[in-house]
Write a structure and sequence with these properties.
single chain, 2 strands, 2% strand, 191 residues, 58% helix
Length: 191
């Protein structure tokens, strides 16, 4: 998944839960967005790898390949276990937002054709985890991903500004039904 896709995938659930209130917590939003690109530090050519080459290249030199250790479930779990003893610290919510972003990055990569091999390491080190069957999975940077990301950006924006989502869904439903009637009247079968 592309950088924009990872970021919006991490921000959408926050916007859905918090609505406009999320805008009052820019540090948490920022931590989730940074966490959403952090696993790609294992790839020096990635968005974050180009910005932090002093971390990306050493990972490559010691043999960490892309979509391995930093993409496995054990990575955010280890960070969470490390952070839990510091629950009372003021930076703890920021850390949790960052870890959440990492997890959402993995969800995004599981929507792609490549998926994540070894996500449940050490239990299933050779299993590729993907949410969609390979023929229906997204091609990273392909048109389907851009369409999905565009829709998610609009939806996230609407949630953050507090749009009437119920009213919006009624409008969309009415438009789809009207479009279906129009096609049916012209003799074009949609399904």
């Amino acid at each position: 998944m592309t950088v924009k896709g990872h970021m919006v995938l991490a921000l959408l659930p926050i916007a859905a839960v918090m609505g406009p209130e999320a805008l009052h917590h820019p540090v948490l939003l920022g931590a989730a967005a940074i966490g959403a690109v952090a696993p790609d530090i294992d790839e020096p050519g990635s968005y974050i790898g180009r910005r932090l080459p002093f971390l990306a290249y050493p990972l490559r030199w010691i043999g960490i390949k892309h979509r391995t250790l930093t993409h496995w479930l054990i990575f955010p779990l280890a960070l969470l276990l490390f952070a839990l003893p510091f629950r009372g610290e003021p930076w703890f919510p920021i850390t949790i937002a960052f870890i959440y972003g990492i997890f959402m990055h993995d969800i995004g990569d599981m929507l792609t054709k490549r998926g994540i091999r070894g996500f449940f390491w050490p239990l299933f080190p050779k299993m590729t985890t993907r949410f969609l069957p390979r023929p229906f999975a997204l091609h990273t940077g392909g048109w389907a991903e851009y369409l999905l990301v565009s829709i998610l950006i609009v939806l996230t924006g609407l949630l953050l500004i507090g749009a009437d989502m119920e009213g919006l869904l009624k409008i969309v439903k009415t438009a789809v039904v009207d479009m279906g009637r129009s096609f049916t009247e012209k003799g074009v079968a949609l399904f």
